[in-house]
């Protein structure tokens, strides 16, 4: 255990002691001196009885600060809320930034959500209800409505005064958004600019006009791209006619980027890598659906080989190279798939020439296939003293790799066009599919040369 | 082409026109009104001749603002700098935030770096030289030295005055770091706190003590984890005895998270997915090393099967199931690999019980293997009217999957312990390796039952 780990453990022990000694003043002093993330580490380490005490020792507001930062799975969050007095839970949710409260409410069922919304102050409830409307993974679903907006026709001094009054609630005060009388976004000014400039300068003269904004219906990945490209700390969210609806802050975008990376990685491996369980039955139950599906796809390959059993019986040497050809083509297909998925994710759809992408992937397949095919032609020719066999294996390799590359790029493109996430097309799926095509190619080429192998 | 794309194209055309008409005043007006990211989009779209004009129309300072944001590959950056007058380039690098200047200089050779550092004002050069020392991928290599630090024994008013004077150079002014007379980090206060509190309050009373900091030698991924967990906009960097050396801002951390995700994804696929070329020869040259290496690993599988050729010749039915067993075990191994790599990446080393991790993976392999094995026992038994064959295939599947799961978790763990990045262990490598073990298992089990198959 390293230093940091030790510190976390010690802190947890200390807090447990204070709770069990029912020493509320010291617990409050020490707990509230921690950063909300560290408070979360403590909270998640408590037993149910210990947590109950925190609900008495801490105000809903104080616990809410911690819940802004906690990232927990569905079951736990539901359990925590159920432990609390419903009024306490509703107050806590109401005190949180609306976007974070929404993140938590989305993990509950409709009935529970209604209970908490009913118990909450009307103002908070209506803010949250609005946000709950937006479709998952859109800008609207991750934005918050707690931002600072001002009008252009005022001085730096008066803007600072507004900022000062709004700072306690706003999720960020580092960008101030400028709107007209209709709430249309017309500019943005950073707090840095407010501080650098003189008190009696006009906001209208200092603000950046035509600020970069995202639409409320935009995909959260596009929002992430904007924040990343522009190095923003936050981006404003507008509707179709540029009314300012909310903002999205960089900390939420980091979560989006993380989730996206994890889901791409999971997709490629054909397994949810967020699997944290150590229970082999639960782990297996999450991996089996893909494995069994692919087992049946693999069965079609087996039944295909079964049709060529007479050939194998006549020339058993053919069996030696089945796994080499299917394996290599599968590897090439996986490479091609990963490149295609990444291209689809990073390029703008409108800017992608799918035909060109597929053509380039086939050409790459031909080149890799040619090099691999010639290599295996020489190796097999020398090893088995049979260059005709080498030619058959090399030729099969060339064709199988080209087809695997085609499949590796075509399948994610098709999924993308049909509106599915191309990252779901997994490596295991491509390798299993390419087993089938590779075997078909291999035995058809071998059939042409059977007279040379029989009896080998 | 969508709206945003069109806007970018139109803007580029307009800027090209102004440059070619040698209309410096309008070019400056319009170019400088853009966000630096948009300036970068324009700059990267210009021809060499057009770029030359920008070096005359824009000051090194103005072009530097744009270069803070541009992300380009080695060759291009080198080319751009070589196009500029060396004095101009040195001034531009000197005007940039030190961390971004270092990012660019790291892409040049030593001689070029020396030329620019010699031409630069001493103060900038020494800052940059210090940063260039730090090892790649450490906190030191991505931090910047342009931060705001103050002493505790002063009022909010005087701190704001310091902030105002330092704001133009500092990379962020949203956190102000508090140091003692020895430059040891003792606290942090956010600009939000400065603004909310009264002008004559003391910094010492308002600041958070024991601020979270990272060590200058920490891995950049650990820094990313800190910023993400705590939802920070920046984190201070200290040496072994807590001297404040620099800060790392969230925009640089987003790049780290992105790069890490891309390299994990590339690792799993066994290909560099940042491949943007459409030249099939270049693409193939990047994919072939892995493919050919694995081809030779696959050759050992082939030569292993070759030893059992007599068995295949006697019972050709055995050949039918080779690809099903190797394929399914490979899929299971890939899942296991991805889960292990992710666990290693997210867990603290000191906290990971490797033995437990491997044991849990073997158990998961046994459960998935059992389910898959029983399924295939039934399917093959019915299909081939031969439950002994079904038993052999099922048994081989169970063992092959368990071994593949073991390999999938053991290999990344070994790599991690030996100091390599476990994410380099690719899916293709695991599938090719598990082909070998699966074939060995399959034929050894089949050998025990040969008398039942001969002549089938």
UniProtKB/TrEMBL annotation, chains A, B:
Functional summary from the UniProt entry: Acts as a magnesium transporter.
What name is this protein filed under? Magnesium transporter MgtE
Species of provenance: Carnobacterium divergens DSM 20623
Its cellular-component GO annotations read: plasma membrane
Q: Where in the cell is it found?
A: Cell membrane; Membrane
Q: Which membrane topology describes this protein?
A: Multi-pass membrane protein
Pfam families from the xrefs? Answer: CBS (PF00571), MgtE (PF01769), MgtE_N (PF03448)
PANTHER family per the UniProt record, alphabetical: MAGNESIUM TRANSPORTER MGTE
State the oligomer form and interacting partners. Homodimer.
Do the record's keywords include Protein transport? no
Q: What's the domain of life for this entry?
A: Bacteria
Task: Kindly indicate whether the keyword Transmembrane belongs to this entry.
Answer: yes
InterPro entries linked to this entry: CBS_dom, CBS_dom_sf, Mg_transptr_MgtE_intracell_dom, MgtE_N_sf, MgtE_transporter, SLC41_membr_dom, SLC41_membr_dom_sf
* PROSITE patterns in the cross-refs: CBS
Swiss-Prot/TrEMBL keywords: CBS domain, Cell membrane, Magnesium, Membrane, Metal-binding, Transmembrane, Transmembrane helix, Transport
- Primary location recorded for the protein, binned into one broad class: membrane
Q: Name one GO molecular function term.
A: metal ion binding
Query: Membrane-crossing residues?
Result: 288-305, 317-338, 358-380, 387-415, 435-455
